[in-house]
């Protein structure tokens, strides 16, 4: 179009009309009289504008990509959070399965000895100062727990109850230096007294200085008068070392406990003693010895070997 007086007047007129339409549109709001025309134009030219914009506006595309990237990052973060929660749940399930196994072993031990037990969980450990080995369990007087009751788990003797509160109790562990329990040897019935030594094996003084004992022999509790503080037949441990007999009235052996005192969780308090001594019934079956293979070597003389009295050339 040529730059003439008429073209300039037409341009001014178009600008005036555009401002008038904008004013009417703003004042009309949702009921704007030009809303229908705007929608019609958007319907026709919208797809074209999107295509042209995607082709000629790389900066806008980059901004949109960054915005979408942020959304994807948020989704990834949420997925990672959900994954961590799932792993935590699986870990909790593993722990629950471990507790079920512990409870199952303890119930089998109690059944073999005909002990009436009250199940409990270790909720705290005592201070290790002064070689004190104690734990706190989540049952107490309200649950029928009394002082000087035997405590066991699926492996054997854990300790005895020393202090009782309304809902908790303190257990002195069998490896505490102040702990002493009467023991009986499996099969031979040799009697002795086992003392705790902290993280070292139990020290057992056998009453018979000439008792025949060997590494691998097992011991159980002998039992106390009226079954307090110890009921009979609870597995104690396995002899790991025997001191040589020096003609003394007693003999010393060292016993590795069946119970791991650093990994206690589910335990049982014996609230009802067995009607009769279970003897060795609670002990697990002895492991079968592994046979040692014997190799026999047979030497076959060679055809070129020299005859007696002849020298090989």
Helix content: 25-40%
Class of secondary structure makeup: alpha+beta
SSE topology string: HHHEEEEEEEEEEEE
- Please state the overall shape, judged from the principal axes of the Cα atoms: elongated
Approximate strand percentage: 15-25%
Counted beta strands? 12
What's the short story on this structure?
Helix content is 33%, strand content 24%. By secondary structure, the protein is α+β, with helices and mostly antiparallel strands. The protein has a six-stranded antiparallel β-barrel.
Task: Please give a structural write-up.
This protein has 313 residues and is of the alpha+beta class. The protein is 33% helix and 24% strand. It is built from three helices and twelve strands; from the N terminus they run αααββββββββββββ. It has helices at 5-28, 35-56, 58-113, and strands at residues 116-125, 134-137, 150-152, 157-164, 169-173, 180-185, 191-197, 200-206, 218-221, 235-242, 251-257, 266-272. The strands form two sheets. It has a six-stranded antiparallel beta barrel with strand order 1-2-5-4-3-12. The protein has a six-stranded antiparallel beta barrel with strand order 6-7-8-11-10-9. A hairpin with a 5-residue loop joins strand 6 and strand 7. The termini are far apart. 25% of the residues are buried. The model is unreliable at 41-50, 52-60 and 62-70 (pLDDT under 50).
